[in-house]
Amino acid sequence: MTVVHRKGQREPKGPEPQTREELAAAFTPPPNSSNAGELSVPNADVSWNGRNVEIPDHFRAYLGDKLSRLEHFDDSIFRFDVVLYHEPNRRQAKQSQVVEVTAVGRGPIIRAQGAGENFYAATELAFEKLQKRLRRSKRRKQIRKDGPNRATSLAEASAVAMPPVGEVGDVDGAADPWDDGVDEYRPGQVVRVKDHPASPMTVDDALYEMELVGHDFFLFHDKETDRPSVVYRRHAYDYGLIRLS
User: Fold this and answer.
1) Can you list the alpha helix ranges (DSSP code H) found in 176-225?
2) Which of 25, 31, 61, 79 gives a 20 to 30 Å CA spacing to 137?
3) Tens of pLDDT along 77-136?
4) Which Gene3D superfamilies does this entry report, sorted A to Z (predicted)?
């Protein structure tokens, strides 16, 4: 992509590809690393994306072995998205190599990013964050499954919501339990109001709740700012945050 100035001059825009020497140094294993033994292969599909970076086979094998270890935290993961790119800003030379890993399963999407002098250092940082987030997600699932706030089954919910046979209607002068007070349908009117308890939570907790219910947005009480806020899903796997002032 190029930018055209008024005088017709053109200048490149975006990161330039690294030289072969720089790429070789970025994928050089640390001195204390050991590749002894057979490396594991993840059961989930792996999507590789190198932005102006050619990923060598030995690094794919190294990264695949680490991805297979993450599957122990969540056996529902069916795809890993791995992105590698070089940050061209010279002021960030110590964090110029970036690794992004996204785990996609039946639960919320877990993503982490690491940056370092080489891709091995960036990978260690990214996987350290991923392991913490997967452990936290696993604990939350266990609490929701066994705790007092566990999900109610369809049979239990139907038994509570449905009135007994013979009580529906206005047979004995009783009010219709299905009557919401709206006489006729009028477009553009508010026909349903729901009140939900709003316990203060962090942005990460709000993102987890949004992915848990499968909605594109989630209204919550921000614990950090003590204000009502909204997180929402953007393109690809990005999120947005709206805070009221």
Assistant:
1) 203-213
2) 61
3) 999 999 998 887 666 566 778 999 999 988 788 889 998 888 998 999 999 998 888 888
4) Ribosome hibernation promotion factor-like, Sigma 54 modulation/S30EA ribosomal protein, C-terminal domain
Distances (CA, A) of 3 to 10, 14, 16, 90, 189: 6, 10, 15, 22, 49
- List, by residue range, all CATH 3.30.505.50 domains of the chain: 197-245
Residue pair 121/32 in contact (Cβ under 8 Å)? The answer is: no
Second CATH level (architecture) for the domain 12-29+39-141: 2-Layer Sandwich (3.30)
Looking at the DSSP bridge assignments, the partners of residue 111 are 102
Q: Give exposure, 144-163, as e/b (b: 16+ Cβ within 10 Å).
A: eeeeeeeeeeeeeeeeeeee
| CA nearest to 65, candidates 85, 45, 38 | 38
pLDDT at 49: 92
Delimit the CATH 3.30.160.100 region(s) of the chain: 12-29+39-141
Residue with tokens 């350290």: 128
In this predicted model, what pLDDT tens digit does every residue of 184-238 receive, in sequence order? 556 777 777 877 778 898 988 888 888 776 678 889 999 888 889 999 988 766 8
Cα dihedral 223, 227, 228, 234 in deg (nearest 10):
-70
Domain 197-245 indexed as CATH 3.30.505.50: yes
Query: What is this structure's pTM?
Result: 0.50
